[in-house]
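Two proteins were folded this term; both appear here.
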Amino acid sequence: MKIRLRKIKFSELVKFIIAINIILIGLGATTTVIFQIPNIDYIAFFVMIIVTVYLILSRKVYKTAVIRFQYAPYMQFCIAWFIFGVVSVLINHNDWNIRQPIYLSSVIAISISCVIYATCIDLRTFRFYCNAFLISTLINYVISANELIFGNHITEPRGYFQLISTYAGFSNQNNYATFLIYSTIIAYILVKFTEKNNKKYKYFFIFIFVVDFLLSVATGSVTGITAHLLIAAVFLLKHFINVKGTSVFAVSTIIIFAYLLFVIVIIAAAPSWKIIRIIYLNNVVPAFRKSFIFGLGPGGNVIFNNGWVHNLSFELLFDYGILVFIFYIYMLMKIIGFYNKYNCFELVFCFLLMPIIWISSSSALSLHFTWSFMTLIAVFPMLYRKKSGDITICL
């Protein structure tokens, strides 16, 4: 009997390698501890970059995608982040032992974003990458079960609460809770838009949501628990209320400008509120005022606060300056506008939650799974348009 093997296209191999990286990113320190291969995540990353660059250079469809995607708000943000990041590094090169790993982490985050964006040219690839993200979620479930039932942790617990809690391969419970929020949103998008007629996926989403919520409770993360409850409420509300796009846009605009006003107040006045997260920000503000154009350089918030400020938006602002921050806010507004255009107010709400969720995580800017998640969320509106209730490719 002859066994016929299907010829694998090079583009499929590249996407498989990218999916492997998405899984590795979603596992934190798990792969390094389990496989005992030094720098396995870096090896996989560099292989991904090399094969993706070759794919783009050798295939016209991917060259065209890159040319088109460079005008997308998310890609503009990534390009600005990289360019102004280089300038910021050249200006701020003291304390390099602190800055070097943080800068490298930012370069990896930007690279991951560009690679996913450049190769995600259709909904089939989008589903493939989302499923890779959810595979890492399922693996983390197994690790969490091992932690909660048998008390076996991937990395050494720091304190009693970590000993009795779950954080999988992440550095702390808040980071894990943030990842669980992302996986809930990814699962919802798969069910709602790409697998809407597949009952198995609907049950799968319910399973993902319930387990994500229970594990968020197990982490003890107040932000994680609250975010899951709010997201559940909005997802249910979507089924009963038809909210007009103009209303969503108006509310979104007010919330974004309120957040910008909050940023301005922090930078201009440094209010002496007795809130630990605000205190972290105030520690960095005086130095930032002297270098607000290009920022304090990678890790600047860590150096002047003697630790992370626990806020992705401010980490980006403090480290890379007002120019990158403008691209960042523009990107968020445009993505919210895309989802509002397609009457996805529940996903608009999820995006508006992000600045609050990012307060929970420590070293939020360096969490690579945040950027694989953000890229998938950003690229999706570029891949479809609604017409008579159907989803079609719009590249």
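Next, the second protein.
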Amino acid sequence: MQAAPPRRLRRRWLALAALPVILAGVTAVGSVGVAVAYESTKSALPVTPADRALVFEADALAPELAPRRGAGGTLEKFAYFDGSWELCYSFEDDALLLVSTVACEGSPREAEVGLRAAWGGLRAGTELLGGEAALVPVEGFEAGDARRLGRIEVDGAPVGSAAAVRVGRYVVTVVLQGRWFVDAAEAEAALAPSLDALRALSDAEAAAE
């Protein structure tokens, strides 16, 4: 895991991290207005220990943050009218910004649409960083059933990482600022606990059908 001195990009990063949710709705329903209306239907749900096991949190990539778990990070869960739900985690301090989400879609096919929309949102959101910003693909990433991994660079210098992974009907997105994965292997190792928990959940659902 590589780290860089903090840069004052956080507000733009938060907008970047929110874009996949909106664009996923636009892709699914074909209308910005309907997508925004869909987002407005969400309702808060209680977060359980089982939910927390699904989410990539700050202490997973920086063990020294473990004693601060829960103090600087927030985890929320939202349900939508169509039965889908989403976990949203965020952590921010002087050296690190992490936003990660887990979205439960109606089917693997819908999740595949969500994955493409999420990655499109991350690519579009990179432009909000200003300067010569780019989401540079990182090759060799083999997590989940479908996946994308990129290093976010501004003026040729890395400032973070972004990932989107599908596991069954679940879509995971991760946005980092201040640290980044040096290669695909490091990203796979860091995300493995979250993705393994989602795989177990997905397999259990399949067995119950």
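The first helix runs from residue 10 to 29. The two ends are 40 Å apart (CA to CA). These notes refer to the second protein only.
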